[in-house]
Amino acid sequence: MHWRVGFAFVILAAWAEPADLVWTTLGAGSYVEAASIDLDFKLNRQWAVELKPSAAFTLASIAVPLSASAPGGMLKLTLMADAPGGPGSVIETFSIEGVQAGTPEMYTVNSVLHPRLDAWTEYWIVLEAASGAHITWWSRPALSKNSSSNGIRQAFRDHNGPWSMIWTPNPPGVAIVGTRLPSAARVL
């Protein structure tokens, strides 16, 4: 007796690509102080830059160009959801310590929570000084494809008051690294 056994395998794979740059406001030019913002602990001012990724991803890291008026500056970086009128609920909070004086350097924070950020959803990168230092958040003109003709939304507030919004063609620098998520399962 001859038996024929057939197997059909359908594999649904939800794979992810390696981490890569998924969103940035940084151009290829030199850092520009005139388009930068100042984080001064005495003013208790927070500054925020909106991000709106074109693809879903899990967060790996966030990098920002900074310098301090004196070595040893500290600040808090927060990833926040969007809310009416500006940044809303906290998604993840980071601490950056040892910001150096002089030329800007990229400071990178690594995500512990690796939150999923959805495509075409607005999020905010918020910075505030966490010490008595005066810290500059630098910009590099010539925005990437993430900008619109009006620029990118930026927000600021003093003493945890209401957010004020502006549109700027040269927002403070942000580079987001993450792992892109597939848009659908694939049949192999």
Key structural traits:
188 residues; mainly beta; Jelly Rolls; 7-stranded antiparallel β-sheet; 6-stranded antiparallel β-sheet; 15 strands; globular; disordered N terminus
Write up this protein.
It is built from no helices and 15 strands. The protein has strands at residues 12-13, 20-24, 32-40, 45-51, 57-68, 73-83, 86-99, 105-110, 116-117, 123-129, 134-139, 152-158, 164-168, 175-180, 186-187. The radius of gyration is 20 Å and the shape is globular. A hairpin with a 2-residue loop joins strand 6 (73-83) and strand 7. The model is unreliable at 1-16 (pLDDT under 50). It is mostly beta strands. It has one domain (17-183): Jelly Rolls.
